[in-house]
UniProtKB/TrEMBL annotation:
Coiled coil: none
Source organism, top-level taxon: Bacteria
TM region positions: none
Basic and acidic residues bias locations: 483-496
Catalysed transformations (reactions): L-aspartate + O2 = iminosuccinate + H2O2
The keyword Oxidoreductase is annotated on this UniProt entry: yes
Function comment: Catalyzes the oxidation of L-aspartate to iminoaspartate, the first step in the de novo biosynthesis of NAD(+).
Name of the protein described by the UniProt record: L-aspartate oxidase
Keywords recorded for this protein, A-Z: FAD, Flavoprotein, Oxidoreductase
Family annotation (InterPro entries): FAD-dep_OxRdtase_2_FAD-bd, FAD/NAD-bd_sf, Fum_R/Succ_DH_flav-like_C_sf, NadB
Amino acid sequence: MSETWHASTDVLVIGGGPAASWAAIHAREAGAEVTLVDKGYCGTSGATAPSGTGVWYVAPEAEARASAKAAREALGGHLADHYWMDRVLDQTYTNMNRLAVEGRYPFPVDLATGEQLRTGVQGPEYMRRMRAWLQRIGVRIHDHSPALELLVDDAGAVRGAAGHQRQLDRDYRITAGAVVLASGGCAFLSGALGTNVDTGDGALMAAEVGARFSGMEFSNAYAIVPKGSTITKTAYYGYATFFGEDGRVLEDAGSTRGRSVIARTLVREKVFAQLDRADATVQAQMRLGQPNFFLQFDRRGIDPFTQRFEIDLLAEGTVRGTGGLDVVDDDCATTVPGLFAAGDAATRERICGGFTGGGSHNAAWAMSSGSWAGAGAARYARSVSRGGEVAGAGRVGLRPSGSGSLTATEVVTAAQQELIPFEKNYLRHGDRLRPALARLDELWSAAAQELGGATGDERVRARQAAAITAVGRLMYRSTLSRTETRGMSKRADHPGTDPAQHHHVVSGGLDAPWIGTADARNSGLAVAS
């Protein structure tokens, strides 16, 4: 392994998806020197890059905006905040228009009006254009350079990050005036398309410096997929009829509570689907909008519109869930000085409440929160002194207290056994959650002593394993503290909604995790332990 590479910058962006890209653009436009480090290749890694997605793009018309905000309020348990919804709608509208002009994105044109259709993007082209935009404005991009730990000064402020450059086989240490965590969510290495880099690394690093999280109980998103597939496009199953193993139609499986019906059925038998509710026009639109969705069927010789195919549920965790780092001001600053959060690394409760934002809301949040975090980080970096010593905050997976004999594969396998089965994480009941959490706590203690790696790649995998475990522990603690059913977090042992629990559940800590609540009427900023 080569000697550690040292560098400095005004703003360090960790991540390479939409949130990271928009953060880098706005930090650069605010006059900051910007360095971006991505775990993969900026422009092709992450959940957005391989897929098409809708975007919560709504013209600034009062009736249209009101309808857009009302659409998911009840589903989200009335935890969303209209102030943040308005901000995201405004910023998304601006950014999508900028993407068309400065980003040179080729939006399709409505033949009837001659206007561009800016309500969605094709991920591969979107991210290709974003990378080119970053390069044009002078953002320094380091691909295949996962961050492993944050750097902090004597006062506890975040001052950069250290990591490993895989292709150069060397460690790096980048000091900065501020850091934007846009590293994505955590899908527990379930195999969902584009989520192999989404292992909660940013959450682990943030927890190590004392950052607060919010809504971690709303992190149990599961997507419908053809059995054995990685391609998650659940919206298309709105045109499906679902069948049990004996051919009977599964009533309500296509409704808003349909995945619960499917999950309960999958526990005891196979489930099949057929996209038989899409007419010829819709079928053509679906193929045009998501060609990779149909590639899996074409290769197998299946016509999903006329033939039944077996399905499964694939965990997407916080990638399609809602929980993440809490944000404490309009700049998406966290509770730790110098650290900002954006995209799936941050909570999306502000606009989605406790229900998944799906593709459109999450896409809008990524570009909006990224914009605010980047500009805010640039302002913060200008306001602070950059001298003094800094130290790495990472521990589990990097600096084991024991022999380091536990492997990342062993930890991931053990964590997945508690986090991926939908009879534990989706069909939630305290009698199953408490033992699962106890096993994760035991796993964390063992990892703290014995998980590590000698090489750079081994340390990267060890940190992924530690991150998955850490996210799972915060998720289940938050779930157990919410003794009701609200949004995505449905408790079989607490099936009703409790008006007294109309609050955010906030959390943090690693060796000694803690849980608190925050007023839902105050953007989750006022904490009561």
